[in-house]
What we know:
By secondary structure, the protein is mainly beta. It folds into 2 domains: 1-30; 32-264, Jelly Rolls, CATH 2.60.120. 10% of the residues lie in helices and 42% in strands. The chain contains 2 helices and 20 strands. Strands 1, 3, 4, 5, 6, 7, 10, 16, 17, 18 and 20 form an 11-stranded mixed β-sheet that branches. Strands 2, 8, 9, 11, 12, 13, 14, 15 and 19 form a 9-stranded antiparallel β-sheet that branches. The longest helix is centred in the first third of the chain and has 23 residues, at 2-24. The protein starts with a helix and ends with a strand.
Amino acid sequence: MKNLIYLVLGFVVALSFFGCSRRNYPYLSENNALTQQRFIPEKHGYRLAWEDNFDGTSLDTTKWGLRGIGPRRIGYNDASMVKVRDGKLMLMFDIKGDSVLAGMIGTEKKFENSYGYYECRAKLQNGCGPWAAFWMQSPLISKGSDPAKYGTEIDIFEYFKEMGKDTLTHCLHWAYGPKMKSSKEMISHLKGLSDGYHTFGLEWTKNKYSFFIDGLKYHEQTIGISHIKEYIILSMEIPDKRESLKQACVPDTFMVDYVKVYKKKNR
Length: 267
């Protein structure tokens, strides 16, 4: 009996130790990141070059423009779906009567850049159907097939909640048109992704793209590398079928706390 008591006590102590370990290192078994070492841009030679913290009560039009106002898939991008309040950008989704509405902004012709580290801190939408997206676009993407010359659509993340509340995707597309090419969809998992704010990042170099969530690297790609300046887009995307709205939350919001761009010297 005494040996059994000692065995049980030892098991309890071991569980307690393991529990503390999991609390101190919550990402060790709760994500599919390539590494558990956090990426800090300043430690890799980057300096802050551009940012928006969404202070004030309206969109800073020196940095952003409303994008794609008008028809989009089964709905419309509408200026009323973009608001700035309490230090947050709000990109909304709503259904008003027969109209499906959402918001999108971009830095086209205001801020365009190539290599660097791009990051936003955001809270993702609640429902399925519409989806939050943080991406980069080339102004020349439909002009030719070589991504080095004509650029690449870089989907830093898209959050399709129907894939799972703790899952999002990343992807690359180039050579818009009948011969468009894409990377394989990259899938990332992080327990608690649907709760609160998280950071989403892209490191873009001459040789590769690296995708980050909360400072952890999840994926790398060496195809479709763009060598030209591109612009940033934040959007609440509208689906292409009405049936996709069956589990949508109305209204819904993609909340962005900040966007930051880091560059290395002489770039």
